[in-house]
Specification:
heterodimer, A: 123 residues, alpha/beta, two-stranded parallel sheet, 19% strand, globular, B: 157 residues, alpha+beta, Nuclear Transport Factor 2, Chain: A
């Protein structure tokens, strides 16, 4: 994630990290400490203890459980009206058993895909 | 005496890594337009995405639309395999991110406008917002509808 943010310094990008207790020992304090490792003003951090967001994301992506270890790209203009997210323009994962749904995370590919959506202002 | 001094001097000169050589060739290409410098510095996967001719066109487009290249900062290596180069044109500065394979070939290249510093950049907010209903996240997501958005869901440990 950090490498993608460094490689795509555009102000046209916003990032949301939703921390979830995927491991039973995960706590909000862990989320706070993990967030502090980032130094990028374009990142927003959330703590989703009840999988309130992770569950609908799992359904949208076709997963059999809550979404976790996923990286989802949405283009400008995308807006949600319901209590569930729409399908992303592109996504990758680090899950076992989801390879039929999307590719396993490759930071280079994710960067390229992010950059294809970033408007090339002034170029 | 002079000869002996020369030998000592040569032996203490630090050798440039293949990655550094590739980065410097790329910079010299940007400065001079000499496309022969691009030979052998990119992986095949990069060349499949953009040909040498395409890079020459891009370089010329930059010069035409952004004015004179005033200076180049870098390459600044952020790790053994990654570096940043800042191209300062008359009209705008561009940040180029480079990633190298083990042979020092460039396996990833991106060029983006340099972010304009704002107050937000100097005071990074890493506060964590608790989610109790889907709307908590939906409202934040919708508020940034004018941006490309990257959403990740992760375990903090």
């Amino acid at each position: 994630m950090q490498s993608v943010l460094r490689a795509v310094p555009s102000n046209s990008l916003r990032t949301y990290i939703i921390w979830v207790p995927a491991l039973t020992a995960d706590t909000r304090q862990d989320a706070v400490e993990a967030s502090a490792e980032f130094t990028d003003a374009r990142v927003n951090y959330f703590w989703d203890p009840e999988m309130t967001v992770a569950n609908p994301f799992g359904k949208t992506l076709g997963l059999t459980r809550f979404a976790w270890d996923v990286y989802l790209l949405y283009d400008q203009g995308e807006k949600w009206k319901k209590d569930s997210p729409s399908k992303p323009n592109f996504w990758m994962h680090q899950l076992g058993g989801a390879d039929e749904l999307a590719s396993t995370l490759d930071s280079v590919v994710l960067r390229w895909q992010t950059e294809t959506l970033i408007p090339k202002r002034g170029l | 005496m002079t000869f002996a001094f020369s030998i000592v001097s040569c032996s203490t000169v630090q050798k440039k890594s293949p990655s550094q050589k590739s980065a410097e060739k790329l910079i010299t290409f940007v400065e001079t337009g000499d496309s022969t410098l691009l030979e052998g510095i990119f992986t095949d996967s990069v060349l499949q995405l953009m040909s040498i001719e395409g890079m020459v066109d891009t370089r010329n487009d930059f010069a035409q639309s952004l004015g004179e290249l005033k200076s180049v900062d870098g390459p600044e290596f952020t790790s053994d395999s990654t570096a940043i180069v800042i191209l300062r044109y008359e009209e705008m500065s561009l940040v180029s991110s480079l990633e190298f394979n083990d042979e020092g070939e460039i396996r990833f290249l991106s060029i983006q406008p340099e972010p304009i510093k704002s107050a937000d950049d100097t005071a990074v907010d890493t506060s964590v917002t608790g989610i109790t209903q889907f709307a908590d996240f939906r409202d934040a997501f919708n508020a940034d509808t004018n941006y490309v958005r990257l959403v990740t869901i992760l375990s903090p440990t």
